């Protein structure tokens, strides 16, 4: 599956890293983003950013995936939505 423009893992990694004040290489594919400091306010910021780029996403979509919030889980979700 080809990632939708702007929702590929590397783009999401750069956005999340910037939001957390981390280097992109420090955000690994399977890291639980909560352990890196991603809180609900930051998730809300990402939701609004991604909506502006055309994603049909809600806060609950990212927090209720049935798995830990990881870069790969979110990228897969955003590319299906």
Automatic annotation (TrEMBL):
Cited InterPro entries: ACP-like_sf, PP-bd_ACP
Ranges for domain Carrier: 3-81
Domain of life of the source: Bacteria
Pfam families noted in UniProt: PP-binding (PF00550)
PROSITE patterns assigned to the protein according to its UniProt record, in alphabetical order: CARRIER
Identification of the protein by name: Carrier domain-containing protein
